[in-house]
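Please go through the sequence and fold tokens given here and tell me how the chain folds. Record follows.
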Amino acid sequence: MLLEIRDLSRSFGGYQAVSAVSTSVQQGSIHAIIGPNGAGKTTLFNVVSGVLPPTSGSVWLDGEKLTGLRPDRIARMGLVRTFQGVRLFGAMTVLENVQTGRHIRTSSDLAAMFLRPPGRESKQEAAIRERAMALLDMVGLARQRAVLASELALADQRRLEIARALATEPRLLLLDEPVAGMNLEETEDMARFILDVCDELRIPIVMVEHDMGLVMDLADRVLVVDFGKPICIGTPPEVSTNADVIRAYLGQEHRTSGGAA
């Protein structure tokens, strides 16, 4: 297994946000984590990626323990994530944002690279730029390389954030609500892109997502949490017909809003 989560828990005072979650992720697979709002999904991501320490339990990446390490160290080991709220460098260009992601795999001085006059880059800096451009081409943003990140539409900002994550050469990618705020066409484009990342780049993906159509179409396995507790894990057909899932999540949301959230 590439990723192993063992009995992971996180509490805030008397509130148990994540409770004894265990799961694993294989190479070449897409996993999804679903559950009602407030179920503990993003908290689980925060603990796995080192943003928050666990109250108990552990996280392992290819046999190496991640628990207790800083997020930057975890990223260097190959576990990289995006966030529910896009976190780009708005005052930097699209190209510069991707170059910052590449920096953790190089020895170049990032500030010096951006301040140096054009045409005077080192071989390593040229390689960083070329790789960044290749990733922008992959996500369809190459023509917007000189545009400030803050000026992009939301769907393009999410693509840029994933391109920046890919620049770190991840072994595993965590996506927190990758299609939030997107329309149907944008969601379908993102779905194809996620499949490309997994199939062509051979990078397994774990995503938190509310769009049930996307989850059922893309995921190999689905973990369902409710009030921080795992209530079901299995294939999309197994999860969609599970009585506990229907009662705690799908059924509840369909009764109240006509769809999953």
Notes: The mean pLDDT is 88. The radius of gyration is 19 Å. The first strand starts at residue 3 and ends at 12. The beta strands are 3-12, 15-25, 30-34, 56-61, 64-65, 79-81, 172-176, 205-208, 221-226, 229-234.
